[in-house]
Design brief:
- The protein is an all-alpha fold.
- Helices cover 56% and strands 2% of the residues.
- It has eleven helices and two strands; from the N terminus they run αααααααββαααα.
- A two-stranded antiparallel sheet has the order 1-2.
């Protein structure tokens, strides 16, 4: 799999940045984009020092969620609650699947903004320095409890193959997006999802939805970048010789992040209507 620093292994400054990302993205995990940058010496601290103000102010998140608002996605065949139970998804699992989908719909547009801002830095652009560091923005409430990311290497061969069918490569290494690694907690359900989604990976309507999201995010990047303060003098810029590899990773996330929004929406929309919370009145 693509190199990444797991959240449980992070210490010191990296652990602090991870905690800020979880809080500001309003999800209980750090995405693979940041986990990968953390494996490259100095990259995550430099990225966060340069771009963090756009996220602590909430400007980046507001731009990301504005770009994704109202996105129309293709529809999958509805999934019955009985089918979920046959696939091993019980009541708690159903709530968790719903939260998984909602979390990637929330976090992936924000990662697209982060990668778009970082790409500008790698291309030699610099913020004009007219922006000011602001604080006080309150993130939304976190989504519900989520399952852990499944390690593909720990799965039986057939489950590995199903998971790999939804993956891609980054810098020559296999990469499976987190949406699928979480849904792999329910192997039979993931097998259904993979069967439904695989033809959609190259479907015109699905690709068009992803392109529309990318265009909307790209339109939001310039004002967010322009509002950043000047680059701090520390930590130092990472070696330029690593720029190409990081850009290649960003290219892959530019493909998979829209996919997470589109497919997260499609899977979530196909689920049965949420059951009322225990003790809540049935309307």
């Amino acid at each position: 799999m693509l190199a990444e620093l797991r959240e449980g292994d992070a210490t010191g400054e990296i652990a602090e940045i991870y905690a800020e990302i979880r809080r500001l993205w309003a999800v209980p995990y750090v995405s693979s984009l940041q986990r990968h940058l953390a494996t490259r010496s100095g990259w995550l601290p430099w990225t966060w020092a340069a771009l963090g103000p756009a996220f602590t102010s909430g400007a980046a998140q507001a731009a990301a969620w504005r770009a994704a608002e109202g996105l129309v996605v293709p529809r999958l065949a509805p999934i019955s609650r009985d089918a979920l139970r046959v696939w091993g998804v019980d009541d708690a699992g159903e709530r968790a699947v719903r939260s998984v989908c909602a979390s990637f719909v929330r976090v992936s547009p924000v990662n697209l903004v982060l990668s778009g801002l970082l790409r500008r830095l790698l291309e030699g652009e610099r913020p004009p320095g007219t922006g000011r560091r602001t604080a006080g923005w309150a993130p939304p409430s976190p989504v519900g409890r989520l399952p852990a990311l499944v390690d593909p290497a720990a799965l039986p061969p057939a489950q590995q193959a199903v998971l790999a069918s939804l993956g891609t490569t980054v810098d020559g290494q296999p990469f499976v997006p987190g949406l699928y690694r979480m849904l792999a907690s329910w192997p039979a359900f993931l097998a259904h999802v993979a069967t439904e989604l695989h033809p959609r990976l190259t479907d015109a309507a699905t690709l068009a939805a992803g392109e529309k999201l990318l265009a909307a995010v790209d339109a939001e990047i310039p004002p967010v970048f322009a509002a950043l303060p000047s680059l701090p003098t520390a930590p130092p810029t990472p070696p330029e010789g690593e720029f190409a590899a990081v850009r290649a990773a960003l290219d892959t996330y530019r493909k998979t992040s829209p996919e997470m929004v589109v497919f997260g929406r499609m899977i979530g929309d196909a689920l049965p209507s949420p059951m009322p919370e225990r003790g809540a009145p049935i309307r």
